[in-house]
Amino acid sequence: MPIRHPDLLVRLIYEEPLLACIPNGHKLAAKPMISPEDLEAEPIIAVGRQSLPALHAELEEHFLELGIELTVTTDVLSPAEALACVTHKIGICFLSVTSAVARPGLVVRPMSSRLLTRKSGVFIREDNRAPLIQKLVDEILKKSAALRLQRG
Predict the structure, then answer these.
(1) Domain 14-119 adopts which CATH fold?
(2) Which of 16, 23, 76, 151 could cysteine-pair with 89, CB 3.0–4.6 Å?
(3) In this structure, what are the phi and psi dihedrals at residue 4, rounded to the nearest 5 degrees?
């Protein structure tokens, strides 16, 4: 998300903060929290930029509003590929809490801007809103709400 299409019914399942994944030994790795200003001129690894352009536009707009232009130097398809690039010291990537898996060669730090989040959802086409599909969506939303309550 964000997905904006008139023929789709969009339901938010969950939203989680973005974290910065930084190579070990990088000057930012010692900081407990990363501010947007820290990322000025840093090489950024973009995850799924071609397949999810609205997501990256939202991220870039957030930084531009703060006067910071991100320097995307590498495009990857998946979070796992992004983490591999970070461990090889190619750059820094932004991942959601559930995707930012700690591994040797990188550190994961929270962003000071709490506005940076990843939203996940379910999308249903206008011509596919059968009762069974709606029941499935309702169940997903119910389980998602229960998980959010558990996490606090």
Answers:
(1) D-Maltodextrin-Binding Protein; domain 2 (3.40.190)
(2) 23
(3) -125, 105
Is 74 in contact with 91 (CB distance < 8 Å)? Answer: yes
Average pLDDT over all residues of the chain? 84
DSSP H or E run through 73: strand 71-76
The pLDDT assigned to 84 comes to: 95
As a dihedral over the C-alpha atoms of residue 56, residue 58, residue 64, residue 70, rounded to 10 degrees, the angle is -20
CA–CA dist 59, 111 (Å, integer): 13
3-state SS class at 93: strand
Say how many residues make up the chain.
152
Look up residue 33 and give its two tokens.
Answer: 């929290």
Q: How many CB atoms lie within 10 A of CB 63?
A: 18
